[in-house]
Design goal:
The protein has 253 residues and is of the alpha/beta class. The chain has 1 helix and 13 strands; from the N terminus they run H-E-E-E-E-E-E-E-E-E-E-E-E-E. It is elongated.
Length: 253
């Protein structure tokens, strides 16, 4: 909860009235008896007001800083090493695996290096921590040295196993022991395409059942290798209502 004023100043008895001499002494005694407590309360309120004022000032500064960072992030320019010419705030770049916000305009952005010169403030880092983009659209990105998470299902030993796209778009699994059934879950919503590649070992050694939503070329599921690795690709653009299945590699060795 934010800092707030909680002290209530206690009531002081009525002010003594010289025009009422019969009650003046009594009223004076009551007034001066209440006065010290009221002064204590007033001092407490003054202290709380100072705390609230300081808190408001801090919150305002934090809000201003957050606003500046948000504006800079919204005006991300890419790698600092690829920048040329003048730079005007709001402006941010990536340099040495860190995100930097420009604090002031520069006539030549190459003259001031992030992490070296005070014109830049670090606002984030690429430190290997997972970032949830929450389906945010990235327009015209250029990636280099990209890898994908592998969802290792291991030796399934029969039964039913789910391939969850949220666990990775590359899947490895081994069929053994008894009949194997696959289910698919968490594809992108309809209107976005979702795909995964399955490296399946010994898929032909047992009966493999695919979801009824999978459509195969010629409406026929492929015959898989009993002792070897097959590569299959599944893709959907309607939220998993229909999957298109393809055998792209048979008995890879």
């Amino acid at each position: 909860m934010a800092d707030q004023i909680t002290t209530t100043v206690r009531t002081i008895s009525g002010t003594p009235d010289r025009d009422d001499p019969d009650n003046f002494n009594t009223e004076s005694d009551a007034f001066f008896e209440d006065l010290p407590g009221a002064i204590t309360d007033i001092n407490a309120v003054a202290g709380e007001m100072n705390t609230v004022a300081s808190s408001v000032e801090t919150d305002a500064a934090d809000a201003e800083s957050a606003s500046a960072v948000s504006l800079a992030a919204a005006n991300f320019q890419g790698s600092w090493s690829s920048q040329t010419g003048a730079a005007a705030i709001p402006y941010s770049v990536l340099h040495d695996s860190k995100f930097w916000m420009l604090n002031t305009g520069l006539a030549d952005v190459t003259a001031k290096e992030p992490g070296v010169d005070v014109e830049w403030t670090q606002i984030g880092a690429l430190d290997g921590t997972a970032i949830d983009m929450e389906d945010t659209v990235l327009t015209r990105p250029k990636f280099l040295d990209v890898s994908e998470t592998v969802n290792v299902l291991g030796d399934l030993a029969g039964g039913t196993d789910d391939i969850d796209l949220e666990d990775g778009n590359v899947v490895t699994a081994t069929v053994s022991t008894s009949e194997q059934t696959f289910t698919f879950s968490n594809p992108p919503a309809s209107g976005s395409n979702g795909s995964f590649t399955l490296f399946l070992t010994n898929g032909g050694s047992q009966t493999v059942n695919w979801p009824g939503s999978v459509d195969w070329p010629a409406a026929t599921a492929p015959t898989l290798t009993a002792a070897g690795v097959d590569v299959l690709v599944f893709t959907t653009n309607d939220g998993g209502t229909t999957w298109l299945g393809f055998l792209v590699g048979l008995d890879i060795s």
